[in-house]
Every structure is written in structure tokens, then in C-alpha cells.
Automatic annotation (TrEMBL):
PANTHER family: BLR0577 PROTEIN. This is FAD/NAD(P)-binding protein. InterPro entries: FAD/NAD-bd_sf, HpyO/CreE_NAD-binding, L-asp_N-monooxygenase_NS-form. Pfam families: NAD_binding_9. Residues 10-176 form the FAD-dependent urate hydroxylase HpyO/Asp monooxygenase CreE-like FAD/NAD(P)-binding domain.
Length: 592
């Protein structure tokens, strides 16, 4: 086909979602008989095209994924032929990584984050190299700071005052800088007046954090008790010359050997002091928590029925009711593998609903929050290997994780009220310490560091914090610690009103985007097009990814980057540029 008209599409941010958007765009460009030549302009300020900052190829090997090779089911890219461009297919992650499932009893392998970065970058380069030779793509490491739309064209301005034009723009930006909390601001002011103290406000990149830890400050406070804290603790352990010894291959139990010259102590703390639960050790144990096909069908049907009139829903209780039924069935199916009890199914259902809603229960089938964190981690480690009786709360987390793909599909693009969507996402976030848990080896490393005396959890549960010239005094009911270095390991949530990047701030101020809720992200339609404050105004500006939290459910999952969401956007772009339709921002039901 002779294509003389050139249409430009700008992709701002090119981590995994930007890569997926690029692939989807070419897939639908070739299949729709377009009458124009497509030119893509890609911006990724880190230079990590396809993998972004989170999956930087050069990051420390101690940053681990919390998703195993078995679970990393990123699909292959099929070959694409368009005009004189022949884009080869690219293998799935598992094929690329030479993953083979040999036995359900084989211990799951959790790759380094850099390994996934290598895959994503290679996948991007494999398509970029081909279309670059045709002049169909340009890549820039510029940071886009401003975006304006007039006369059916976008003008993009970079931090270097370069100007670009485009017919369509998609924002595939991930983690964005946010304004500091009041606590962090207070600490920054405190440290500025006390040169003997050190405050590190961001965990990543960990290499920079490690280099910023003063060698003579031996007491380190870690604000947060989640995945970032685990990555950092493991890195600190190795950075100061320590090493881990596995003393039980199956349970992954370890012994930590600090360097003889190491005198540091680590003091993590969080608002509730509760540790994350590790994922099951292998497929055999993981399958104990896998709902049956019948369960999934019932779950899907119940969610469809419950959300038919999403506008009328008043709370998140509908989701609790639906999920509790599935979880109760799975828990009962575990039979003698659970904590001993005499409850019938109705009683277990009631306890399940209560635990999901409140996050705690006095029932003996749930681990008590009054247990110390070491005991909780030890119990969860035993459940992850099926060597200790399984509690209801651990079961809740693992079943909920298995149901995530169904929940993501069924709860995205629904017309819930702002408050209800906020509560649904809040509920899912509350369960993350059980659903998004780390590999079992990570929990065993923490336990080994605690046993060695390097890590101390005596002030882990919401300590009172007093700033003095000697350091941060952390006081809990049980003990006190004074730290001279404080590191923030709490990652910013995707609250668009708290984002301070120039581009997002400008888009908000100019009413190009609007937040769904003060606690959430930007409202978008099913094809990714942003919903403007002026409902009569429609422009081809789309958002795929983290800042769409609220419209989308499940924005932080790597597998959600390569799915129908990118395809929905790409279909709309190809049609609009081909003048097949002038409609922008359709609201069809999501594909399930």
C-alpha cells in the first residue's frame, strides 16, 4: 500500500507498558488496512527502553522479583509484517529464560529484577531496530515537561526546551515523584541542623542508598516493613561483608554470617509492625490454594451480577461476600492441613468475612496479631512449605492472589462511585502483605539476620519517634532504640494529586486530566483515553498504567502490562488516525 500521509504517535515513558503499547500499535496498524505511514516517537528519560527504571539492567543482584519464573507468564510477541517492515516474533519470558517445569515439587525460582530488565530491553530492541531502519521510530531520553493540544495536534516540550509534535499521545509513565509527607519534611529539617545524622528519603536505586550510609553510623532505622525494606536489608547485609548460608534446602532456612568488622544494627518499623507472608515454596504447595475452575466460574458470575448496577453499590462489602465464599471453600478443602478447629462452613464463612473486613480475628484458626513478628514469620514460613498447619489468614492471602487476574478484569472500568472504588482498592492494598509477599528465601533471610543480632524488631510496631541531637529515639511499648541513619523504604502510592512531576502538574492545572478520587489516579475510558473535566471536550490523550489506578484495578502487576488494555488503546488509535471513527473515549464493557 502506498502511504504518503505520516501520522505521529508519542509514547511518553517506555518501561514495560510503553513496550506493550508499541507492540500493540504495530499489531493493529497492520491488520486494519490503514492509509497512512505510522511514525512513533518514544521518550524514556532513564534510557532504559522497554524496561524502565524499576527493571534497570545494571541494578544490584540483591533486588529480587516477588513473582517466580513459573508465574512470569509474559506472552510471546507474534511476528508482524507491514509494508516492507518484517518484525520477528519474540519469545515469552519463560521460553527466553529457558524455564522448564520439571516437577510440582521443584522449588520456585524468583529471578533478579535485572534479569527481567534484560528480557524487556531485548524485546524492545528487537522491534525498534527493525522499524528504525525504515525511519518509523525515534527514541529520546528527554523528559517531557509540558503537553499542549490545539488544532488537532499535540505539542510536547522537553526539559531541554526541545519541541515535538504528535497526532496522538499515550502516557505510559510509572512511579512518579510525589511531595514528601509531613513526617519526612520534618526529618529533613531536623537533619539539616544535625550534621552527625543522615536521612535517605528514597530506597531506590539501592546502590546509591548503600553508598550514602555513613560508615560510622552503626544504627540504621528503616521506615517501612515491606518489599523495599527486604531488598534493602539483604543488600545492606552483603554490602557490609556478610553472607547467608542455607542450612535446609526445602524450607530455605538460613544462617547469617556477618562480617567480623560489621557493627551495624538495623531497626525496621511500620504503622502496624506486621510482616509480609512468603509465597508457597513450589507449585505443589501453591496449588493447595488454587480455586477450582468451578470456583472461578462462580466468582466471575457473582462479580458480574453484583456489579451490573455499579453506581448503586454503597460499599466494598459485595467483594468481601463474593471472595469469602471462594476462600471458605478452599480452606475447607484443605482438610487436615489446616489449624485444628471444629467450625462448620457457615462459621468459617463468617470468620473469613470478618477477617477480610477487619484484618484481624480472635479465632484460633487465624494467627493472632499479638504474636511477635518473628513468630508470625516463622509460622508463615512453615505454612509456605506445608510443614506447619495452615491458618485462615494465610489461606485468604494466597487464594486472593490466585483470584487477582479475575478481579482485575471484572472490577476495572466499572462505574463505581469514587468512594466505593477507593474502598475496593484500599481493601486490596490492605491484603498486599499476604498477596504480594516475597519469596520464602527472603523471609528466611530476615529471620537469619534477626537471629544473628544484626536486625532488631523490638520497635517494629508503630513506635513513638522523638528527634534529638543524638538521633531518632524510637520508643515502643516493649523497648527503645536510637538510630543515627534513617532510610525511608515506603514507596509512594499512585495519588495523582500528590505527584509533583512537571508534566502531571501541568496536565492537572490545564484540565487535561482529572483525578477519580483524592486517594487515587486519573479517570480513563476503556480504550485508555483520559476523561477530561470538560465532558464535552475529547482529545486523543491516553493513559496506560499506574496513574490510572481507580479506573483500572491491578495497575502494579507486571503481567497486567501485556494484556487487553494496550490492545484496546491501539485499536482506537489506528481507527482514529485512519478517520474510521471520530469517537474518542468509548465506554464498552471490558473484554473478559
Amino acid at each position: 500500500m502506498n502511504r504518503t500521509l505520516v501520522k505521529k504517535v508519542a509514547i511518553i515513558g517506555c518501561g514495560p507498558r510503553g513496550l506493550s503499547a508499541l507492540e500493540s500499535l504495530y499489531k493493529f496498524y497492520v491488520s486494519n488496512g490503514t492509509n497512512y505511514k505510522l511514525k512513533i516517537i518514544v521518550f524514556e528519560r532513564t534510557g532504559n527502553f522497554g524496561n524502565g527504571q524499576v527493571y534497570d539492567q545494571n541494578q544490584t543482584s540483591y533486588n529480587w522479583l516477588n513473582l517466580s519464573e513459573r508465574g512470569l507468564t509474559i506472552p510471546e510477541r507474534e511476528a508482524i509484517v507491514v509494508d516492507d517492515i518484517n518484525i520477528d516474533g519474540f519469545p515469552s519470558f519463560q521460553t527466553w529464560a529457558k524455564y522448564e517445569h520439571t516437577s510440582d515439587k521443584s522449588i520456585d525460582v524468583f529471578p533478579q529484577r535485572a534479569t527481567l530488565g534484560n528480557y524487556l530491553n531485548e524485546r524492545f530492541q528487537s522491534i525498534k531496530t527493525v522499524i528504525e531502519n525504515n525511519g518509523s521510530i525515534e527514541t529520546y531520553t528527554s523528559l517531557i515537561t509540558s503537553l499542549k493540544y490545539s488544532n488537532s495536534k499535540f505539542e510536547l516540550i522537553s526539559d531541554e526546551d526541545d519541541s515535538f509534535t504528535a497526532d496522538e499521545v499515550v502516557l505510559t509513565i510509572g512511579h512518579q515523584p510525589t511531595y514528601n509527607s509531613a513526617q519526612i519534611n520534618k526529618w529533613k529539617n531536623f537533619v539539616s541542623q544535625n550534621s552527625n545524622l543522615s536521612l535517605i528519603t528514597e530506597t531506590y536505586p539501592i546502590e546509591s542508598t548503600l553508598e550514602s550510609i555513613p560508615q560510622d553510623n552503626n544504627e540504621i532505622g528503616l521506615r517501612g516493613f515491606g518489599l523495599a525494606m527486604i531488598d534493602l536489608s539483604r543488600s545492606i547485609a552483603h554490602y557490609f561483608g556478610g553472607h547467608f548460608e542455607i542450612i535446609d534446602e526445602f524450607t530455605q532456612k538460613m544462617k547469617f554470617h556477618p562480617s567480623k568488622n560489621s557493627f551495624y544494627k538495623i531497626f525496621p518499623f511500620s504503622l502496624n509492625g506486621l510482616p509480609m507472608a512468603p509465597k508457597p515454596i513450589n507449585k505443589k504447595v501453591d496449588d493447595l490454594f488454587l480455586p477450582t475452575t468451578q470456583h472461578f466460574n462462580i466468582l466471575k458470575a457473582n462479580l458480574e451480577s453484583a456489579t451490573l448496577n455499579a453506581k448503586q453499590i454503597q460499599s466494598e462489602s459485595f467483594l468481601i461476600d463474593v471472595m469469602a465464599q471462594v476462600i471458605t471453600s478452599v480452606f475447607i478443602g484443605l482438610k487436615d492441613k489446616t489449624v485444628k478447629h471444629s467450625y462448620n462452613s457457615e462459621e468459617i464463612l463468617a470468620i473469613t468475612k470478618s477477617w477480610i473486613s477487619e484484618g484481624t480475628s480472635s479465632s484460633e484458626i487465624c494467627l493472632s496479631e499479638n504474636l511477635n513478628p518473628v513468630a508470625i514469620m516463622t509460622e508463615y514460613a512453615g505454612m509456605a512449605t506445608n510443614t506447619l498447619p495452615i491458618s485462615l489468614d494465610y489461606c485468604i492471602g494466597q487464594v486472593w492472589r490466585h483470584c487477582h487476574p479475575t478481579l482485575y478484569k471484572q472490577l476495572s472500568y466499572k462505574e463505581f462511585s469514587e468512594d466505593v472504588m477507593s474502598k475496593i482498592i484500599g481493601l486490596d492494598n490492605k491484603l498486599k502483605r499476604l498477596t504480594f509477599g516475597p519469596p520464602l528465601a527472603s523471609i528466611q533471610q530476615l529471620l537469619a539476620m534477626i537471629e544473628s543480632g544484626v536486625m532488631n524488631l523490638k520497635i517494629v510496631d508503630d513506635p513513638d519517634i522523638l528527634c534529638t541531637e543524638k538521633g531518632w529515639h524510637l520508643d515502643s511499648e516493649d523497648d527503645t532504640a536510637v538510630v543515627t541513619t534513617m532510610i525511608n523504604t515506603v514507596l509512594d502510592p499512585p495519588k495523582v494529586l500528590e505527584v509533583k512531576s512537571n508534566l502531571v502538574t501541568q496536565l492537572l492545572n490545564d484540565d487535561y486530566i482529572k483525578p477519580i478520587h483524592s486517594e487515587l489516579g486519573i479517570e480513563t475510558y476503556v480504550d485508555g483515553i483520559v476523561a477530561l473535566s470538560d465532558t464535552d471536550k475529547k482529545i486523543p490523550l491516553a493513559l496506560l498504567g499506574r496513574l490510572a489506578k481507580g479506573t483500572l484495578f491491578g495497575v502494579d502487576a507486571i503481567l497486567e502490562c501485556f494484556n487487553q488494555r494496550s490492545d484496546n488503546w491501539a485499536k482506537g488509535v489506528v481507527k482514529r488516525l485512519n478517520n474510521v471513527t471520530e469517537v474518542v473515549g468509548d465506554k464498552p464493557e471490558p473484554t473478559v
